[in-house]
Amino acid sequence: MTSGRSTTAGELSKLSAFLRRDLLTRLSYRTAIIADWFSLFSQALVFSFVGKIVNPALLPTGGAADETTYIAYVSVGIAVSGFLAVGLARLVGAIRQEQFMGTLESLMVTPTTASVILLGSVVYDLIYVPIRTVVFLVIVSIWFDVSFQASGYIPALIILAAFIPFVWGLGSVASASVLTFRRGTGVLGFATFALTFTSGAYFPLTLFPDWVQTLAKLNPIAVAIAGMREQLIGGADWAAVGDALLKLVPMSGGMLILGLYAFRLAMRRERRLGTLGLY
Known about the structure:
Blueprint (H helix, E strand, L loop, with lengths): L1 H12 L1 H14 L1 H21 L19 H32 L2 H5 L5 H30 L9 H29 L3 H13 L12 H7 L3 H13 L5 H36 L6
């Protein structure tokens, strides 16, 4: 048992090396960081004008007694969908970058498990993206005079944390596709768009056909967004957090298991064929 614990501790200690590498890489490309934030706020700015022609009475209030504004409604959707897009792009991009640089095969032959390699590829984002989400919502609340519930930030972050394994699992499936077919970003982009568009991130689900509203109950993005809106806009209690987690955790856990299994299968196939370093 001691040996098993030391092995696990040794594997997890490698995450700091991944974190340091990605941090230095991000700092060397400051323009990309600026572009990321510009994209976030440009969306918020565009939707703030869209909100001027939207009837607030048609928007879900998230449990709030008063009407909500469209910019408050859509800001939560932008934050969560932005987290999804960034998380997927970084995970798949990390694998593709290793392929292009010719370092993927060298990395995979080290005594490091596939799970640690995948986790190491996103450990920077696991720290950066939640901070990014909170800072974005705080700035939006000040800039556009949006009244988010201060007590809702921590519960919303807990819901977001439960959503992270889904993003990691979906990204792992996409990474497995990249390893096997050397492509997959196009399909990933379409799937991300479909999941986001039908999640109620930008428009109330009541505007969609009934079958879309039914499927949205099985869409982890929709569950995460609805749960966070209840906290940030409606000021819901902790019981609502529990309800959201009961729905979200099984979905995220199932996708994570599927993603890790798919990535390991892809790894085994490429090693068997001797094509791991090809791109």
